[in-house]
Amino acid sequence: MKFKKVLSIKDIKKLEIQEFKRRGNSFSLMKSAGTAAAKIILKLIKKQPIIVVCGPGNNGGDGFILAEHLRKKGYKVDVFCLQKKYYKGDALKALNQLQIKSKNILDLKIKKKSVIIDCLFGTGISRNVSGFLRKVILKINKSKQKTISIDIPSGIHGDTGKVYGYAIRANVTLALHSKKIGHTLYPGRNYCGKIIVVDIGMSKKFNNYIE
């Protein structure tokens, strides 16, 4: 089967496993993804304050990496996330490397003329957004500040485009490595804004065949 430019969650996970083996670890790919996303963000915005909102999984880990890259470039960056105990694996490693003092996501404050980077959930969300994370999404949408989602707007399923209760309405979505099916199907497509595919450094040889 020839490489598809639009991938399913299953496809992307297979490619990631092959890439982890090639690199010898998984954290290296998270670092590549976060850094590549940050470089695109630098091209999209002016020197505005940046708010990075990180959820508990690897999407949040990508957020910590890109936040640190933007800090090093001289941007004013606020990071709002969960308590440290909710992070594990690569996401925890990324949080530990963050030189920005993170703030509790419950205290999310959105200043005018800021840019919000949405790293709450990745493509594999499987249940309705509820509780304080629902409030976070509503607050971001209500703010009407420019919002950039990493991989897919939080609350949208990567395979179906289904909205799991509530979802971020992004101005721009940075699709990591390739578009996912959920970027192309409605209603998810309506939440993505402009979609930019980000090269995160995965080996091209893995693109040729997906079983």
Task: Give an overview in words.
By secondary structure, this protein is α/β, with parallel strands linked by helices. It has one domain (6-41, 51-123, 141-165, 194-207): 3-Layer(aba) Sandwich (Rossmann fold), CATH 3.40.50.10260. Helix content is 37%, strand content 17%. It has 7 helices and 9 strands, in the order βααβαβαββαβββααβ. It has helices spanning 9-23, 27-44, 58-72, 89-97, 131-143, 181-184, 188-192, and strands at residues 6-7, 50-54, 77-81, 103-104, 115-119, 146-150, 172-176, 179-180, 194-198. The strands form 2 sheets. It has a 7-stranded parallel β-sheet with strand order 4-3-2-5-6-7-9, covered by helices on one side. Strands 1-8 form a two-stranded parallel ribbon. Strand 5 (115-119), helix 5 and strand 6 form a beta-alpha-beta unit. Helix 2 (27-44) packs across helix 3 (58-72) and helix 3 runs parallel beside helix 4 (89-97). It is globular, with a radius of gyration of 16 Å. The model has no long low-confidence stretch (mean pLDDT 94).
